[in-house]
Specification:
This protein is of the alpha/beta class and 248 residues long. The chain has helices at residues 15-26, 42-48, 87-92, 100-118, 133-146, 178-186, 207-212, 217-226, 230-237, and strands at 2-11, 32-35, 55-60, 124-127, 149-150, 152-154, 157-160, 163-168, 194-200, 240-243.
Length: 248
């Protein structure tokens, strides 16, 4: 039986985005959500999901918006205005310029902020968009300090809990169809200790999303996918088990 874990990222990105993601969660199909705790709309996003059984993770963010930490304490992460450096700066750098001690402060601050907003310990800490060894190290250190999960790497690749994960995120494809991507991902051969993690960004689009993200139309398409009653029906007919982080 194929096992699929579907996670939505970016809660808190914008007001409109939050409304779309909340609709996707309330359909019942989507139950794992990554929050960007530093963003202006983080609390608004969390409040949209009050009363649901959603499992929150820290979608640790060092490339969008303002940090929680005093910018003066984390100069390697911010520009002259105290705003996080753009993801393309990290991606184009020849060396990892992220200072471990600085990013550790910010990741921990984001972890504690999400705990404050939800009243619960986040299940996991994972990274948003930035390729940095020190960023990943800080995430692992914060997760270990608070006894929660982070992505590890085993003999088969990325691991969460007892499962090795294949990975699916096709939202950048020009002919993207979320349902077809889901079917393709779920049709991969998987051993008993393997599952597929499908990462979505379901939400509605406003000016902020349009001007700051390359993922635009795909976000609305993913809301439609999550609320489509044919999706759980297809899973049942094809023997696909839907996992949440609680199953790991």
């Amino acid at each position: 039986m194929a096992k699929m874990l579907v996670r939505a990222d970016d809660l808190g990105y914008s007001e409109a985005f939050n409304y779309g993601l909340a609709r996707a969660v309330k359909s019942g199909f989507l139950r794992c959500v990554g929050v960007m705790p530093n963003m202006e709309w983080a609390e608004h996003g969390v409040r949209q999901l009050d009363g649901t059984d959603v499992i929150f993770t820290v979608h640790a963010n060092i490339c969008q918006g303002k940090p929680i930490t005093d910018p003066k304490l984390i100069p390697s992460l911010v520009d002259e205005n105290g705003i996080f450096k753009d993801k393309e700066i990290y991606r184009s750098a020849k060396e990892d310029f992220v200072v471990l001690e600085e990013v550790l402060m910010e990741v921990e601050a984001q972890f504690l902020r999400l705990k404050e907003l939800t009243g619960k310990t986040p299940f996991m800490v994972e990274a948003h968009a930035v390729p940095s060894a020190n960023f990943n190290k800080a995430i692992a250190m914060v997760a270990a300090k608070y006894g929660v999960e982070s992505m590890k790497f085993g003999p088969k690749g990325p691991m969460i809990g007892k499962y090795s994960f294949k990975f699916s995120m096709d939202s950048g494809n020009p002919d993207y169809n979320p349902f077809e991507s889901f079917k393709k991902a779920a049709s991969q051969p998987m051993e008993e200790d393997e599952a597929c993690l499908m990462v979505l960004h379901p939400g509605y689009v406003d000016e902020y999303v349009l001007t700051t993200s390359y993922i635009t139309t795909a976000r609305a398409l993913e809301v439609a996918f999550c609320v489509n009653p044919e999706v759980p029906k297809w899973c049942e007919e094809n023997g696909v088990q839907l996992l949440t982080y609680a199953d790991l």
